[in-house]
Amino acid sequence: xxxxxxxxxxxxxxxxxxxxxxxxxxxxxxxxxxxxxxxxxxxxxxxxxxxxxxxxxxxxxxxxxxxxxxxxxxxxxxxxxxxxxxxxxxxxxxxxxxxxxxxxxxxxxxxxxxxxxxxxxxxxxxxxxxxxxxxxxxxxxxxxxxxxxxxxxxxxxxxxxxxxxxxxxxxxxxxxxxxxxxxxxxxxxxxxxxxxxxxxxxxxxxxxxxxxxxxxxxxxxxxxxxxxxxxxxxxxxxxxxxxxxxxxxxxxxxxxxxxxxxxxxxxxxxxxxxxxxxxxxxxxxxxxxxxx
Length: 292
Known about the structure:
The protein is 46% helix and 12% strand. The chain is built from twelve helices and five strands.
């Protein structure tokens, strides 16, 4: 019997509740996540040229994306690019690859763009909308964003052939708000900044994942949940890491409940590396004012 089986069997669970891999089946609909997904859907339904979702590392952006991908209707052709980088032309090659459109390294930019435009027209003629989702978009350069803006020029009149969804960390929003990208910002019709969870929401999140994994929701008592929030800043991925380690320690101690003492032991032993992230990356930010 391996360690993971002992871990889950000890707490009578089907699976680990706090893995770091984005899993739409475990999606917790906090008020902020509901609003973020509503903006995603709004951007898609209203055929916004560009929809932008930003948030801190581990805030749940990618999980929302996966849920969006799983809920798309048949009349939508969607491609996904993760961490697109490169010079002019490389971005277009990434986008074409996301739609399984082959492009030879020797093909000129003009020919690639013509091929891409023909693909969009073909999809439109088939009654389909085409959407490209770019994750980790904060790594894109100003030139990349300008190139994306040029892609939206393919749209004409009321017919939207191509929509763009950008998802990235807060610096993406900061970059888009720069004066020299004002033309790009004008194409962003829908935007939401996903913040960290407060203490009450963190507690609800922990209970949700425990039950979803087949366990009891009270494995973490109220004081333990409060301590998890204090040392994670309410960022879901960091909450998962601390909770997972705390359950390992509870199992090792033969305990059926995680208490503040369990969490302090994890923290004192230094196995929780994310515990040092007490920085601006974990601050709560108002999605409207942008202030802490």
